[in-house]
Amino acid sequence: METIKLNNGIEMPAEGLGTFLMEPDDAQAAVESALEQGYRHIDTANYYMNEKAVGRGMRASGVPREEIFLSTKLWPTEYDDADAAIDATLARLGTDYVDMLILHQPICDYIAAWKSMERAYQAGKVRSLGLSNFPQEKIQEVIDAAEIKPQLVTVECHPYFQERELREYLAPYGIVIEAWYPLGHGDKGLLEESVFQELAKKYGKTPAQVILRWHVQMGNSIIPGSTNPAHIADNADIFDFELTDEEMGRIAELDGTKRYYQPSQEKLEAYAAMTADYDAQK
């Protein structure tokens, strides 16, 4: 497993297991399987309603806590009292700290929530800080207000939408892009692109593995999700080959083809209004 050095010196595994849309039992089993197969990066969120299960999976795996990079996210309905929300998420996960804490959406009082995250960082409850789905102007707003600059921004990113402008903007700050939808939201058309078909044959890999390898070589963090142990293993089998500069250039030509997630401000606000009973999760 390759790692990425964050701008605060923390080493983060380049690939992790995402648990979005996983039911608690599935999340626990997937976490156990991933850790057994060598993963050391697990991603969840309080809105996924599976933090307790993720914590159980980590403990059941037998892997020491200090070897696992654990990431979670705060939902906007908790931004107004983020200090309490951070303590609650730690309790659900059954841990004294998380390795990455992320603001999940760019609405509500995210500056106040960031200040709470900074306090948690200084108290040792959080080791690094990030933003999710924030557009460039709102990232800059956080940077301008922050004492501790973000280490990571998680956004839609895949060969059809490569986030070149955002990458250039973040580079001077040393902020890493983490890709969700790294395989294009399950788009078979992406997997069937001739470049990935050809490279899969060349390297003895699947088109999905070639795409995940492309992400790693771009410097992206990736968190593909699966509950299938075989798929979990396949997703991590990308560190024994390397794409050439010419091959990376061919993939670059796909940029701008398609984006899957384009929410309006109204949709974001309606989405955030769907509150959840975090303490009721199993």
So, CATH architecture of the domain at 12-186 and 220-226?
Alpha-Beta Barrel
Q: Termini distance?
A: 31 Å
Strand order in the largest sheet: 3-4-5-6-7-8-9-10
Element string (H = helix, E = strand):
EEEHEHEHEHEHEHEHHHEHHH
- Strand tally is 10
Question: Over all CA atoms, what is the radius of gyration?
Answer: 18 Å
Q: What percent strand? A: 5-15%
**Mean pLDDT metric:** 95
What does the overall shape look like?
A: globular
- CATH homologous superfamily identity of the domain at 12-186 and 220-226: NADP-dependent oxidoreductase domain
CATH topology of the domain at 12-186 and 220-226: TIM Barrel
Question: How many helices?
Answer: 12
- According to CATH, what is the class of the domain at 12-186 and 220-226? Alpha Beta
**Helicity, as a percent range:** 40-55%
Described by strand count, sense and barrel closure, the largest sheet is: 8 strands, parallel
Uncertain segments of ≥5 residues (pLDDT<50)?
Answer: none
| Computed structural class | alpha/beta
Can you offer a commentary on this structure?
Helices cover 41% and strands 13% of the residues. It contains twelve helices and ten strands. It has helices spanning 24-36, 51-61, 82-93, 110-122, 136-145, 164-170, 188-191, 194-203, 207-218, 229-236, 245-252, 265-272, and strands at 3-5, 11-13, 17-18, 41-43, 69-74, 100-103, 129-132, 152-156, 176-180, 221-222. The strands form two sheets. Strands 3-4-5-6-7-8-9-10 form an eight-stranded parallel β-sheet, with helices on one face. The chain has a two-stranded antiparallel ribbon with strand order 1-2. A hairpin with a 5-residue loop joins strand 1 and strand 2 (11-13).
